[in-house]
Amino acid sequence: MAAAIAGCQHTETGQPVAASGVSSAARTPTPGTKALTIRSVIEEQPVPSSPSTVPSTVPSAPVASDADIAAAKQTRQNVGLTSDPQARQQAFASLDCSLPDPLMGHEDTNLPLVACGSGSKYVLDKAMLTGKDVADAFVGKSSDGHTPVVSLSLTDAATSVWADFTAANVGKQAAFVVGTSVVSAPMIQAPIPGGRVEVSGSFTEADARDIVRRITGR
């Protein structure tokens, strides 16, 4: 996925502890606004032999059973993912990026997440920022005037968090995640103060509008 954020360069080569209840009844996720999370990347595993793991549009949440959701959370949102390589490998093995994700719409932002992106699977830390930290979002164009970007304006509190994070993590990746799909995972090139972030990726203008809609609810 060719992607970037202001102050970052993408170098990608490469979905989250058990929920209570094991009912087999299907559960439909609540349609989400504020669906964006920003997470640090712990590990990336390329999937070179597969087609793009992110469809042309960010997938909608499927109807999933409580049992499927609980099983996915047990493996892919295990707190041990941040420190246990074996747990990470088990989570990677359990994730088929070609199938609908039962966690979509049920993910916990306070837990790590194993997720799909374009050409990679990722282990991500708990969310440092969510859509609630975005004051506004809109579709724009990159500096070349051709590539669609999602432009974010962060709240004052989130601006400070993002500036501190980027200053402390130059040379590391940050993932922009919509639901359980990684839409961009760029490498931080420099601190990013000011609270304005432009996110680009392998998405169309329609995809960018969909991402903005999920963040803002409009």
UniProtKB/TrEMBL annotation:
Compositionally biased tracts (Polar residues): 21-31
UniProt-listed Pfam families: SecDF_P1_head
Coiled-coil portions: none
InterPro entries given in the database record: SecDF_P1_head (IPR054384)
Superkingdom of this protein's organism: Bacteria
SecDF P1 head subdomain domain segment(s): 118-211
Region named Disordered: 1-35
Name the UniProt record assigns to this protein: SecDF P1 head subdomain domain-containing protein
